[in-house]
Amino acid sequence: MKSIFLKRGKEESLRRFHPWIFSGAIHHMSEEPEEGEKVMVFTSENEYIATGHFQIGSIMVRVLTFDHEEIDQHFYEQKLAIAKDVRQSIGVMGNDNNTYRLVHGEGDNLPGLVIDIYGNTAVMQAHSVGMHLERHIIAKALKNVMGEGLQNIFYKSETTLPYKAELGQENGFLLGGDTDDVAMENGLKFHVDWLKGQKTGFFVDQRDNRSLLERYAKGRKVLNMFCYTGGFSFYAMRGGAELVHSVDSSQKAIDLTNANIALNFPDDSRHEAFAEDAFRFMEKMQTPYDLIILDPPAFAKHKDALHNALKGYTRLNRKAFEKIQPGGILFTFSCSQAVNKDQFRTAVFTAAASARRNVRILHQLHQPADHPINIYHPEGEYLKGLVLYVE
C-alpha cells in the first residue's frame, strides 16, 4: 500500500477524526497512487494516522479508518452491521416501512458510499472512485449482513462518479434482477425508479417531514412544487387535504406521481398533476392554496454557485409568500450542502419581508435519523427546512 505524508501540523483535523484530507495538507507521497487506490497516511513525524481512498481533486483522501487494519470484506461487513444496528435502534425497519437509508457516507464512516433499501432491493451508489472499485466486495458484505431479506442489489453510480476518471461505469444489478419497484413508507406504497430516477430513485430523506406535513393537511388546498414522484402529495392526501396539486417540470416525474397516487388513492379526484416550470406555474396560479411545499433540487452543488443559489431561494420563497392564503402553512427546504442553515433562513426571511407578510416559524427541519451526521464531520448536515405560518 502506498504512503502519503502530511505537512507539519496538518494532522490536527485527523486527530479530531475528520474524514477528509485536502490536497494542501499533503507534503509528499511514496509514489503517485492511482485514483481510488487505498493509501496509508502518516504525519510529518512518520506516525501512522489513517487509511483511506485516494482521489484526484481538492479532497485527496477519504478516510476509511483511523486504526491500522485491513480494508477487506470483513471490514465492510463490520461497518454495515453497525449501520444496520443503528437503523434497527431508531425504528425505521418496521412492518409498515421497508424504505430507509442503510449507509449515509461519512455519517456511517463509509465516505463515498450510499445504500438505500427499498423492500428486498438495495440501491448502492458510489460517490468516489474508491467505493466504485470496491463495489463487488461491498455487495458480498451487504448480502451477508442483510441475509435472506435482501434479494437484489442495484448499482447506480453512472452520474455520481467523477467523469474525468473515465471508468466507463454502467448502472446494473450486482445481485438478483427483480424489477418489482413498489416499496412502502409508513404504510403508503410508491414506485421507485432506481433505473433512471434521481438519487437512488426516491427521496428517502424527507420521510419524517412528509409525516409532519400529513398532520397539517386536513381540509387544506395543497400545492406540492418540485413534486418529483409525489411523496408529499400522497401524504397530504392521506392527511385529508381538500385538494392536492403536484407540479414538476419533468413529465416523467408527473407520470410517476400519478402512478403513486393511483397506488394509494385509486379514482380519487382530489389530486391533479402538472408538468410545468415552477416559477411559471406560480406566476399564473389562481387556486387559493393554503399549504405550499417548496422542495427544489439543489440550487448550489458547490460554493461557487452560492450567490446565485441564495438569490434563487429568495425569489422562489417570495413568490410563495405572495401567493399563499392568509393563515397558510409553508414547508420550504434546501438540500444544497453549500448553503448553511443561517444562509437559507436569511434568504427565506428576506423573501417574507419583501412580500410584506407576517410569518412565524413553527418547525425547523433537517434530515432524518437514518441520514446521520458524523459529529466530527459537520459538513454532512445538508437538508434544511422551515415550516412557517403565514398571516
Stretches where pLDDT falls below 50 for ≥5 residues? Answer: none
Strand order of the largest sheet: 16-15-14-17-18-20-19
- CATH architecture classification of the largest domain: 3-Layer(aba) Sandwich
- Cα separation of the termini: 62 Å
Rg result: 22 Å
The CATH topology of the largest domain is given as: Rossmann fold
Shape: globular
Which structural category do the helix and sheet elements fall into? alpha/beta
Largest sheet: 7 strands, mixed
Helix content: 25-40%
> What's the CATH class of the largest domain, please?
Alpha Beta
CATH superfamily of the largest domain: Vaccinia Virus protein VP39
Mean pLDDT: 93
Number of domains: 3
The percentage of residues in β strands lies in 25-35%
Along the chain, the helix and strand elements come as EHEEEEEHEEEHHEEEEHEHEHEHEHEHEE
Structure, explained:
This protein has three domains: 2-65, Archaeosine Trna-guanine Transglycosylase, Chain: A, domain 4 (Roll), CATH 2.30.130; 73-186, 2-Layer Sandwich (Transcription Regulator spoIIAA); 203-390, Vaccinia Virus protein VP39 (Rossmann fold, 3-Layer(aba) Sandwich). 28% of the residues lie in helices and 27% in strands. The chain is built from ten helices and 20 strands. It has helices spanning 12-15, 73-90, 129-133, 135-146, 207-216, 231-238, 251-264, 278-284, 306-323, 341-355; strands at residues 2-6, 20-22, 26-29, 38-42, 48-54, 59-65, 99-104, 113-118, 121-126, 152-155, 172-175, 182-185, 188-191, 221-225, 243-248, 271-275, 291-294, 328-334, 359-366, 384-390. Helix 2 (73-90) packs across helix 4. The longest helix is centred in the N-terminal third of the chain and has 18 residues, at 73-90.
